[in-house]
């Protein structure tokens, strides 16, 4: 994992923010990447001593699974690698997954259609993010792809 922490070891941060930073890595767009990302991020958060309860860790793993699975299922043909970014800052966690596919999922903005079976995973991401006091969305990239992201409060 590529670690690009914003806090150098010499910086003195308040105890509750010593884990702040941003970490980026890429994975191939294959099914095996989904559990790998879950485990890698869980281990990263533990190493950074982020204060997470069991319910929040479950929510984080659920969100990651959905975001990476969508990249694998829907963007693999146009994406040689899926980018994953984890940011801890000021008591919030931001999870972002980038792919090269131009399609912007509307499930994060829509009300579910009872007859449509697609897009339920992103609706779940939205529900989890909002229930915890966070947010989620889709941001286009300069290269024509997208970043699907969710933020969750840590406390």
Describe this structure in words.
- With 155 residues, this protein is α+β, with helices and mostly antiparallel strands.
- The chain has a single domain (20-153), classed as Histidine kinase-like ATPase, C-terminal domain (Heat Shock Protein 90).
- The chain has three helices and six strands; from the N terminus they run ββααββαββ.
- The two termini are 25 Å apart.
- Mean pLDDT is 83; it is low at 1-17.
CATH class: Alpha Beta
Low-confidence stretches: 1-17
Structural class: alpha+beta
Examine the coordinates and then state which fold CATH places here, giving the name of the CATH topology: Heat Shock Protein 90
How many domain units? 1
Radius of gyration: 15 Å
Query: Considering DSSP H and I runs of 4 or more, what fraction of the residues is helical?
Result: 25-40%
Percent in strands:
25-35%
What's the story with the biggest beta sheet? 6 strands, antiparallel
Number of strands: 6
In the CATH hierarchy, the architecture is: 2-Layer Sandwich
Number of helices: 3
GO molecular function: ATP binding
Keywords: ATP-binding, Kinase, Nucleotide-binding, Serine/threonine-protein kinase, Transferase
Pfam families: HATPase_c_2 (PF13581)
Protein name: ATP-binding protein
């Amino acid at each position: 994992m590529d670690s690009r922490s914003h806090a150098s070891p010499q910086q003195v941060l308040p105890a509750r923010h010593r884990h702040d930073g941003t970490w980026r890595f890429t994975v191939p767009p294959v099914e095996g990447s989904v559990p790998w990302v879950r485990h890698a991020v869980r281990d990263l958060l533990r190493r950074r001593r982020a204060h997470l309860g069991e319910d929040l860790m479950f929510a984080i793993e659920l969100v990651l699974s959905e975001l990476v699975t969508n990249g694998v299922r829907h963007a693999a043909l146009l994406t040689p690698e899926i980018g994953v970014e984890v940011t801890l800052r000021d008591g919030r966690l931001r999870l972002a997954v980038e792919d090269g596919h131009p399609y912007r999922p509307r499930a994060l903005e829509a009300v579910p259609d009872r007859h449509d079976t697609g897009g339920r995973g992103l609706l779940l991401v939205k529900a989890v993010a909002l229930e915890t006091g966070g947010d989620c969305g889709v941001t286009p990239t300069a290269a024509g792809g997208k970043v699907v992201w969710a933020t969750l409060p840590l406390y």
